[in-house]
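Minutes, methods subgroup
Present: GH (chair), OT, SY

1. OT presented the first of two proteins processed in the latest run. Sequence and structure tokens recorded below as shown on screen.
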Amino acid sequence: MGKMLLRGLHMTIDSRSYIDAMHAVLAYSGLTSYSKAVLSGMTVTGFRFVVNRRLTSESATAYNWMAENFLAADFVGVTASQSAGFSFQPTFPLYQNQALFDVKASIDRGIGAVFWKERFVIATGYDDDEGMLYYDDGAGLGTQRIPYGEFGINRSPYWYYQVFEGRIKLDPVEVYKESLVQAVYKWETHDIMLPEIEYACGSEAYEAIKQALINHDFEPRQAYETFRCYAAAKGDISEYMDILQSFWPELGAAAEAYREAAISFHAVAEMMTEHGCLTELTDELRIQSLVHLFDGAQRAEQRAIDHIKTFMQERIDNRFDNIGLR
């Protein structure tokens, strides 16, 4: 029986994505010194752009967590272990016990862990006597507690956790280059795990957004949550590309284009609120303005991708028909 609390390990919400949790744990443990924006770019997380065609709020987390969260760590040379499944399976109590063992062991190493509790959150401590796991979800409520027996039981039937184990030194320049290749892949390729009738990815995500707005086929509050998440992600990528521009001035036009896209997304988020309260978006003129902003953001991102493809042409061509291969 034991007790451990990693004091000072806290999470802040920006993009409301995995990267918020990942950065909190890695930065606290010293496994990364990168800013959240740079980590978002290097892990390719910030380049992912997926929307449900009805703009539901789960859009930003609609992807294969096991594959992409593992790769996110791998891209920056962080070794990681993870597991996931469904809480309704009869073997769930066994997995739950193993998950708690792994998470607690990671906390004992001073690292913390990432797990899913209606969103990605971080484990910050535990108390065996009380049977409680401590966590922070970034909502500003400080350290919260969840009984061991409730770990992995969510509104949805999915459970997930990830622990980080160590770091392998990589050449950051090579990581930057690979992230650019993956950015092109994310922009041009639909995620095979998602049915196209329900989801759109990359460039097509913009078309889906505009169509949903024009047809009024969305719920304003959920759409706002989706756009707010991506406004933060686009801001991260804009900051990331500014840094890459300092290495390769040839990327200046791409950096400027991502900056334009980020500005458009922030304008969208502001337009959908009024004095801090979400509007119902019944004004047709406002809908047209939103469509115009997304149109501009789409054109800007396409320019950015075109510049990246020119800059990375040799490496992309060497991937032949699948530039997603690493």
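2. SY then presented the second protein from the same run.
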Amino acid sequence: MSDTASVSATASATASVSASAPAAAAAAAAAALARVPVLGDPSVPLPAPRTVWNGSAPRHITAATSTASGRPRPAWTQAIAALLGAAALGILAAAAVAFVRALLSFPFMQDFLAAFPGEYTPAIAVEPGFAPWVNWAHFFNAFLIVLIIRSGLRIRNEKRPTAFWTPRNNPKGKVSLTIWFHQALDILWLLNGAVFVVLLFVTGHWVRIVPTSWEMLPNALSAALQYVSFDWPTEHGWVNYNSLQQLAYFVTVFIAAPLAAATGFRMSGMWPKRAERLSKAYPIEWARALHFPVMIYFVVFIIGHVALVFLTGFLRNLNHMYASSDAVGWTGFWVFVASMVVIALGWVAARPLVIAPIAKLFGSVSGR
């Protein structure tokens, strides 16, 4: 009886397990289907790998492997490109010279050159020669303008200044040490220019660089054509500049220099902050748009000026500029060499280690 009961119990248990197996399998399949996202349901994210950084940006971004398009160009290709560019400029210059020479060979242009040889007699007589104050003003101007250009370019490229200058009476007027140096040079340059202009009019030598007749314009064109043709006009700088020189000096002294001063003052910390009407009438954007092109003008003027000094009789020209003499000798040349050494030393010394002690005399200097 007991055996019969146990057999019956075992059979019933086996039957129950057999009956529950399909149900368990069905439940597992339903759970698996639940985990699979339904494409039509926007609430369920797609099973895609994460491709976006989850969180804040990393402190250091590893540079990606450079591809063929991102690799720097080889040096030899850049050298070839520079040579081709120089060759193209040389061809254009040669073509310009040939064209102007052909133009000046025509009879009507020969008549033009005869009527306007490149210079005219000034309306007011002026004593020939150059006084020593002209030579000194010329040297100080060259020294300061070179350092002004250097510091100005450094300001444009300086992303994170290493030193700052703060005036004693205005803690909010903190600027980089490079900006202070640039503005200090500007003030010295303007003082030198003001003394030069005053002496120019006191002595009557303003006639040299200020046009006194409309004949200046056709004579300036004539001188320019003669320079381009390499059949240069006769130099009489000791007595009178040709019209192209006069026009260039007039533009430099009375137009470019005031523009540089006005635009630089507008961008500096010396501009009055409370002058709202004046600031609206003269927006700082105008100053920024003009200041750099004016600097480019000075660079082009210096290059052309120095080139013509050496190409049109450098010994006599350097004696005019550095020795106050019309003789053809080496005195002016050696003074010029000494002045170039001084300018080079100023260029090398224009760094925070040398500038900071000077700046401390007028304010406080601090690190970043």
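Chair's summary of item 2: The two ends are 102 Å apart (CA to CA).
Next meeting: continue with the remaining queue.
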